[in-house]
Each structure stands twice: as structure tokens, then as C-alpha cells.
Amino acid sequence: MVNTLSKIPVQDAFAQTADLSFTATADENGLISFRNLSDTVTKLFISCIGFEPKLINVTSLSFSNHLPVIDLVPKVSSLEEVKVRATASNGVFKTISDLDIHLRPINNSQEVLRMVPGLFIGQHAGGGKAEQIFLRGFDVDHGTDINLTVDGMPVNMVSHAHGQGYADLHFVIPELIDKVNFNKGPYFADKGNFTTAGFVEFKTKDYLENNFIKVEGGSSVHSGALQVLI
């Protein structure tokens, strides 16, 4: 079972016959065993949450590396209203979405940090190094007291001329950021070093749906261009 857009295996896809004589679920690699499928079966119904259901002819399956490949088309799933009430103790994880990021003009990924409530940044070297960060009363310097990661990779440098924890995010292309998780306070030992004032986790996109080109210019001899291809 494969996502027709990303070509990533689809886990937990469900296959069954009309009379339920055969049922099977895809594993983490998107594989389903047809070992117990009767030779008389001609049609299978495939379904998975987040994908369009599909009725296929068993004899018309395409083959790749000698394995039948079934393409599933992603779709938006509409669920009934669900009310969730969280207490102050478990409502501690906060997220900045892709929509939040791209509704605001952003020159670099460091500026995404401004969206974290209570976080301020300042640049006193013309953009040549990591910004100075202040978070909720903490002078974070250039990252000494805040844990920054990109796709799970630590950004903070253990040792640097500007002090330990120096974190320069300019290598991240802001248009490729999918979401940002964050929280404040020295309560997250599982996040590792430099989490005195809080942490910020950048998550980039898994794949692009379309190619895109971005061109911008300004009155102060400012110009920029970006081209991203799938």
C-alpha cells in the first residue's frame, strides 16, 4: 500500500472481500499478506483513514519488484465534533503551524522564533550570526538557555566563541518549515541540554506537493529569489 502523492508506504490500510472471507491489515512497511486469499476472489475492498476507499480487481494489480503495488489517494477526513478539555498540567505542548508561518513576511528561519509568545530576538551584526534571544525574562544570549532542534537534530553548539549553546538557524529555508513545537520553562529534562528557559522544535516538510518559485524586492535595494523543485 503506497501513498500515491508521496510514494510513502501506508500503514494500517485494511483489505477485505465482500463476504469477509479474507481480511488483512498493512504493516509499518505497507505490506499485506495475500497468502490466505482464495484463488476464486476477483475483487478486494481497500480502506484506510485519511485515504479514499478503493475497489480493485485482483487480476489487475500492478507489479514493482515482484510485489503488487496498490496506490491510495489521500483525502480530507471529516469527523463528528469532538470536545477535548485539557487541564493546565497536560496542556503544555504548543504548536506554530505552516499557516501561521506563511501568513507573515519572514526573511529567515530565525524570525520564526518571534512567533513564540514571550520570545524576542535582536540582531546586532547585520545578519552575519545567530540572533540575540530573550525569553520570558531570561537573557538567552545566542542560544545558551534555549534548546533548538530541526527534525530532531540539535542546533545548539556545545562550545563556541559566543558562549556554549550558540544556535544559528540561518541554514533552514523558512518556506520548507512545516510546523514548530515549543514550550517555556525549565521543566523538560527529556529535551536535553540548554533547556533552562524553554525549547523550540522545528519540523520541516516531508515532501512538496508542487514546485514553486518566489521572487521579492524592496525599495532599499533589497532583492531575493527562491526556487524549490520536487
What would you note in describing this structure?
The structure is a single chain. The protein has one helix spanning 98-102; strands at residues 2-3, 14-16, 23-25, 43-47, 54-57, 62-64, 67-69, 71-72, 94-96, 119-122, 132-135, 138-141, 146-150, 153-154, 177-184, 198-204, 212-218, 222-228. It has 230 residues and is an all-beta fold. It has two domains: 2-72, Immunoglobulin-like; 94-224, Beta Complex (Ferric Hydroxamate Uptake Protein, Chain A, domain 1). The strands form six sheets. Strands 9-15-16-13-14 form a five-stranded mixed sheet. The chain has a four-stranded antiparallel sheet with strand order 3-2-4-5, with no helix packed on it. It has a three-stranded antiparallel sheet with strand order 10-11-12, with no helix packed on it.
